[in-house]
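hey team, just a heads up i'm posting the complex here instead of the shared drive bc the drive is being weird again. everything in one block, sequence lines first with there labels, then the predicted structure for the whole assembly after. its two chains so it's a bit long, scroll down
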Amino acid sequence: MTFRLLKYGLSRDYPVSGDIPATPELKPAYDVVIIGGGGHGLSCAHHLAKYHGIKSVAVLEKAYLAGGNTARNTTTIRSNYITPEGIAFYKEGVELFERLSQELDFNVMFSQRGQLTLAHSEATMRSFHMRAEMGKHMGTRTEVVDQKGVEELCPLLNMDYGGPLEIIGGLWHADGGTARHDAVAWGYAAQASRRGVEIHQRTEVQGFEAVGDRVQAVKTNRGRIACGQVLIATGGMNYDVALMAGVELPIRCYPLQAMVTQPLKPWLHTLVSSVSLHTYLVQSSRGEVVIGGGSDPYQLYSTRSTLDMKEHLAEGAVHLFPFLQGVRLLRQWAGITDMTPDYSPIMGASPLTNLWLDCGWGTWGFKATPVAGKRMAQTIAEGRVPDILKPFALERFETFRLLNEMGATAASH
Amino acid sequence: MKLLTCPMNGPRNIDEFQSFGPVRARPDPDGTADREWSRHLFRAENRKGIVVEWWRHVPSNYFFLAERDLVSNEIIRTFDASQLRDRA
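-- predicted structure starts here --
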């Protein structure tokens, strides 16, 4: 470091090195084509190259890297779900986040500050007891806390004693945390491209050439690519892309809106979420308070924002922390979420033998970026779905074996 | 504020309405296999384009239908459910 400082400190010839190389020419064929240059696709590319020795990989991104839901989510990392299958999967996701900065040699600013979910009713408390017991059984740190416990964890909360939205307890998830979303995507992209993975930005998939039950080639705006295996990991566009291959996913698309306040000094030391208010808050490392909630109330393929949803989020945030009332909003945005009927993702095989799905990530995908990439890479490399992913198969809807995570997902992330 | 024109109550703030999703043909309860039931239950229309969907005006509890563009969010028309029955 010191030598480089001396050598280049006063020179005009400092070698600029970007983490992600410019988009190369498309080759006629790749072993693996990953559709979607967001966190999940890049994570899969990294795991394929690093752990499975598969380096003939092209990641195709319609626009720019990690500009979809990877950039639009609210960076909640947690494993306090309800089903044992869900908890086992998300627990591995949290564990991968715990060592992700070392894995990627890239600071993803993971901050394991814990998540506090609030109950305003006895019914919510009962669901918290169930989640806490399931969580403990599966080896995560999840416990129910009473009013005193809530006040100790987050002293600035408005408890609304005697009011209609009195906080009567909470679910404390010490494993919960947050990380810098862009850094996660860039870290994976940098590692993957260093190992030979090609990242093709502004490369839009326009169709598939299938022969029998196999995808022979992917057609893009930059030409045709023959492919060994294909992964669909396109977030809000998953339904659309899968449909091009003749696969109709049980997905409905809804916008999800969020916003951030102006930067404030650090005051919110946990992630806070209220099920009844459909509002959750986290303070970013820049001091901005990120405020999110549930999806829009009706289906739409648009990232437009509405004043109604912003008022709703502001109302929830100001109720929980009344001193936020004078704080200004800095930015607001929306993403398109691919919601499944049971609020669990769809991972694994498709009706086509070499087309794999990493879809249905709805409003809960960021936390699974490392684990979904790792397990989908294993699936593609071995040609079979590992046990941990089997419950998330597309077939579960036909066999009525749903993984209902609605109560642990809807607006409580 | 986005307006939705209710066939009974006229143009109202869309906040007063609740969406019940795209209209789906009801399968024959006696002669339908599990696979088709699963399809009926879990696969609603989600193609980019125009959908016909159920809406409810919450204060009056009146159910009706709307044709809406899933990309532009333009509400093309709204109509009483009897028209759907007549069309079928």
